[in-house]
TrEMBL record:
Protein name: Winged helix-turn-helix transcriptional regulator
InterPro entries membership: ArsR-like_HTH (IPR011991), HTH_ArsR_DNA-bd_dom (IPR001845), HTH_MetalResp_TranReg (IPR051081), WH-like_DNA-bd_sf (IPR036388), WH_DNA-bd_sf (IPR036390)
Keywords: DNA-binding, Transcription, Transcription regulation
NCBIfam families reported in the protein's UniProt record: HTH_metalloreg (NF033788)
A family per Pfam: HTH_5
Length: 107
């Protein structure tokens, strides 16, 4: 979770995620949308990939990136479960019941 939040701390990386929200793009296509160097974009993409937010695939001489939506959603959901005051006791109850192997009662 820490890597995801560190990756999301950069506005450039958040913009890259927005660019990838509906389609995959090559590294060159991504870089062309920013006024920073290609090596800087490459570093941002590496951080996003290390955090599991994007995946890359080499096709010939090009590298294409796509959003790994489920990782972002799962991380954010995990974070909300940790900090939300209503969900915390429910998670604790769920864990206790699972440890005792008793089913949740209906009602």
């Amino acid at each position: 979770m820490q890597r995801v939040f560190e990756a999301l701390a950069s506005s450039v990386r958040r913009q890259i995620l927005a660019l990838l929200s509906h389609a995959e793009l090559s590294a060159g296509d991504i870089a062309s949308r920013f006024k920073i160097s290609k090596p800087s974009i490459s570093q941002h993409l590496s951080i996003l990939e290390a955090a599991g937010l994007v995946a890359s695939e080499r096709r010939g001489q090009f590298v294409f990136y796509r959003l790994v939506r489920e990782n972002l959603v799962n991380t954010l959901d995990g974070y909300v479960q940790q900090v939300c005051p209503v969900r915390r006791p429910l998670r604790k109850e769920s864990a206790t019941r699972a440890a005792k192997a008793t089913p949740l009662s209906e009602g």
